Request: fold
Amino acid sequence: MSVSVRKILLLGALPFALASAGPTSALCAPARTQAITWQTYTNERFGYQICYPAHLFTPQGEAGNGDGQHFLAKDGGDLLVYGSFAPETLEEEISYIAEGKRNITYRTIHRDWAVLSDDIDEKSEFYAKVFWKKHQFSNFELRYPKAEKARYQQIIEHLAGCFYPGVVDY
Reply:
């Protein structure tokens, strides 16, 4: 039997194979996606920018000193974004963020940015990303419920990709 005849026979059998898979098959399963509306927060004082899922997080207002914004989610998610001029080094900033964390499960430090992850307790986890440019820090910290880890992993990936450090010359 030639290769082209085999291809025709296999392709001809495909509709029957799909039909016999039944409605609960992964081939026929409906996609479970939720439309996410992303909004952008820009901090005037430090110049950094981050997007956030507006359907999930509600802004709580900027801090009195204008260094950042706090966002809360109904499921217990807590997003904090802020800038600062202290401490002097990225390593010191990482130590400050890690202070009081129970179990740092992931840490990577580069020349001008770092990421930390922590298994806070049985119910929540923590993720932080820090940029350091010209003695200025731009940070975001996210605490979220472990029960929602799969959803928050997708959110973290997006947050990390749309977080842009600011540089303000005073």
Remarks:
- The radius of gyration is 23 Å.
